[in-house]
Amino acid sequence: MGGSFTKGLRDGLPIALGYVSVSFAFGMMAVQGGLSIWQAVLISLTNVTSAGQFAGLNLMLAGAPLLEMGLTQLVINIRYALMSLSLSQKLDGTMTLPHRMLFAFCNTDEVFAVASGQPQRVGRRYLYGLTALPYLGWALGTLLGAAAGTLLPEGIRTALGVAIYGMFLAIIIPPARKLASVRAVVACAVGLSCAMRYLPLLREVSSGFAIILCAVAASALGAWFFPVKEVEEE
Amino acid sequence: MTPSYFFLQLSVMAGVTYLIRMLPLAAVKGRIRSQFVRSFLFYVPYAVLAAMTFPDILYSTGNLASAAAALAVALVLAWQERSLLTVALSACGAALLFQLAGGLL
Question: How far does B85 lie from chain A, in Å, by closest CA?
Fold first, then answer.
């Protein structure tokens, strides 16, 4: 008994609503940057990830080399490897290899958080229900933002630019509040990131590589000074 | 950007993202032993998101004052563990209000 499809749909609805607002901003920014509406929607349909798409969009618009694109996606999205690893311990027998490979496509931060929060093991009916609405919401929000975003008054358009960062803060602040180790890692990453932005020479490094360097350095320092006893995945 | 380079970029983006999500689910049965690697992986998401947010959030609205207002609102609401939707939309609302107020002054 891994949960029903309708239970999954219900749990996925609030995620989908949040996605519409963030992907609306993504669609709008993609079109403002020079991509077509269908290109913006295609990115959302094939990637289904917030941070990776926003960073990838900037690299696309800058005409960045493919290696930088690949490495940036690798570092920004490496967190999914940890989530998939953790979730692999929680799947019931209905999640055979083909279903794992299909579900992996939609294993976002929020889907992972809800699925891991379930009291019992989760099966394929529940997981497909859980991912259905967020996937549609992500694509629909992108379409709306790409098609209608430029019709909005400029004040609203520019204000939407902060949506993605609000979502990031909502993910990192609660654990930083509870754990001194996460606070230290976050403070270290913020300090390094600001140094890479403002200091001479360092600011010549492209933004994609800057994120990689900051994240790897801060996480390695965290792992060195605050080794995690048991894996504390949320 | 040519259409063919767009598809190349898109393939790399989507391919890397999918493989990262799929490989551990499909392949890894046991647990990672190395405490350093496990700890490193535990901290990565927070470090990545923090490095992406700062200082970029300050330039995300094209106006330092409205972005700072949005940051303050997002920090307070995130501290109170409000939902992603609440934090994201309230930050947008704060930036918008600040810009409207700035336009009136």
Answer: 5
